[in-house]
Amino acid sequence: MDTRRLLCVVALAGLVALAGCAGAGGGDAGGAGDADVTRSVDGGGADGAGSVTEEAGDGSGDGSYAMADGEGQTAAAAADRRLIRTGDLRLTVDTFAEADAEARTIAEGYGGFVSDSTRETHERGDEEFTVGELTLRVPSEDFDAAMTDLESLGDVERSTTESRDVTDRIADLEARLENKRAERDRLRELYEGANTTEDVLAVQRELADVQEEIERMEAERAALEERVALSTIRVELREEPPEPSAVSTAWYATGVVTAFLESVRGLGTVLRAAVVAAAYAAPYVLAAGLPLLGVGLAVRRRLSRSDGEE
User: Fold this and answer.
1) Is the Cβ–Cβ distance between 110 and 207 less than 8 Å?
2) What highest taxon heads this organism's lineage (predicted)?
């Protein structure tokens, strides 16, 4: 009996030791990682393995998957933003005409167009130089590439870009449009069910106001969408102004024919100035001269009478 008792105690102690080792192994696996816990539990009962395996799988992937999902959502949210992008360039170019043609070609190459353009020619001494400005519209996805190509046309004096986020504005317009359209549908139902002339006229007025508001918001949303789809780039092109001549030509070095022609032009200028001056002075001469002439005649007559009486 004692021997049996002793064997039972030894067997029980062995089982307790084995259970402690299994618990320690499970604890170490849990500390090392959830995947190890899943494998240790899989060796156990089938009922618990499925649920524990699912939990372990969720735990092992939670951090990395959540991070990946968060980054993906952030990138997707950034890509969905509605941005109006504008650029402003000032370039000094060798030849305005060539730079102007190349800028137009760049815009057309990206599927864009020139919306406005100006050109001015200035003189400095005997030379001319041209300045002008182009307003280009290019697809927003090609904005950066178009800016880079345009900067290569000359020496960059100024290059600025600006982005304006209109995502919330467009979303607000869409929500308000949805509400207004629902209101329009309700008014149409009321209009169809109106029985009196007063009700019909009242519903018509409300319906007209709502329709006008819908059209206004639709036009604003379309304008914003168009500016989001097509970026605006303003390009100012300037030829280098010529340096002023530092050497003055002596008057006696002028050619004979040139001197004669300049003299004739000078005489013509003097005569023209004299005629213009006379035209300006004529009204004043008449206004002041006629009274003086009358006074002079009156004095002369009196003097003549005095001489006759004597």
Assistant:
1) no
2) Archaea
The three-state secondary structure class of 57 is helix
Cα 170 from chain centroid? 16
The span from the CA of 250 to the CA of 283, in Å, is 43
Can you give the length of the chain in residues? 310
pLDDT at 143: 96
| β-bridge mates for residue 232, sequence order | 86, 137
pLDDT of residue 258: 75
Going by the DSSP 8-state scheme, the letter that residue 81 receives in this structure is: -
Residue ranges of the chain whose pLDDT lies below 50: 1-61, 63-68, 246-248
Copy the structure tokens of residue 100.
Answer: 């102007």
Alpha helices in the chain (DSSP H): 2-32, 34-42, 46-79, 96-109, 143-151, 167-193, 197-229, 256-309
Buried b vs exposed e over 249-279: b needs ≥16 C-beta within 10 Å? eeeeeeeeeeeeeeeeeeeeeeeeeeeeeee
Q: Report d(CA 152, CA 147) in Å as an integer.
A: 9
Tokens 């209109």 sit on residue: 166
Residue that the structure tokens 């880079």 belong to: 148
Which pTM does this prediction carry? Answer: 0.53
Place of tokens 């001549």: 245
From the list 138, 142, 128, 51, the residue with the least C-alpha distance to 95 is 128
Tokens of 231: 């970026």
